[in-house]
């Protein structure tokens, strides 16, 4: 067999593998059929905006603003940002988002607790500017579904932007750069806590945060492969090339999009739904936020008390 034929076979094999992985990601995205208009509502999202609005009114440093609307006819809800602003306009900027998947509620409780602690003076962020997106997927949260009403997994739509929710986030992020961006998720299949970091040279910050969770009694997810990436003692260290691959296969997640466009310090926090109740999972997410923010910038105070 000549060298040219061998090279051709290698190229064909590589393309076949790439196609197979791409098809795997398409299947793994898990889109489903659109949901009916009479899908039962299981959570009161209006109550979320009422509470957060009242908390913002109680602090001169907090405000809440609508950044877009999700409109499914009989269901119409805003996507909101809660902002905390210090006196120093040059302070580090952080973004935290929650509830990209509507059946992962701990993220919302985590950021709501953080806002409560800010109002109470128990969370010291005097030297940081923070934007919080409490609910990226309002329909999914209200109905307890992973997807939006169209049956789309929003977290695989940040290359195509076919969903209303992804387009709202894209518009909000346009021209906004952050020193750190934190993406709060939950895993219904995991037995323990774990994190992703994206395109970072060092694992030190993530490792220190995972050790903090371990000392506080949180179970750490066992080592395993997650598609092409290795989960190693609670951490998935995703390379930048992997993000470009996800973009190429039209499966880019929100955190992937952050890393490619808005920040060089992006982390996804994953708590195990089946391993603990909502209160405990919220505490684990708060500990992870504290570890990452404090390790990078100093502060904040204890948000778990």
Would you mind describing this structure in some detail?
The protein has a 10-stranded mixed β-sheet, sandwiched between helices. The protein starts with a helix and ends in an 8-residue tail after the last helix. The chain has helices at residues 3-28, 45-57, 106-120, 138-143, 164-173, 204-215, 240-248, 254-261, 278-297; strands spanning 62-71, 76-84, 93-97, 129-133, 180-187, 194-198, 224-226, 229-232, 235-238, 266-272. Strand 1 (62-71) and strand 2 form a beta hairpin. The longest helix has 26 residues, at 3-28. The chain is globular. It contains 9 helices and 10 strands. The model is unreliable at 14-28 (pLDDT under 50). It is α/β, with parallel strands linked by helices and 305 residues long.
Q: How would you sum up the global shape?
A: globular
H/E series = HHEEEHEHHEEHEEEHHEH
Strand order of the largest sheet: 1-2-4-3-5-10-6-9-8-7
Individual helix count: 9
Question: What is the terminal separation in angstroms?
Answer: 70 Å
| β-strand number | 10
The largest sheet is: 10 strands, mixed
- Helix-strand category: alpha/beta
Low-confidence stretches: 14-28
Helix content: 25-40%
Residues in β-strands, percent: 15-25%
Radius of gyration equals 20 Å
In short:
The protein has nine helices and ten strands. With 305 residues, the protein is an alpha/beta fold.
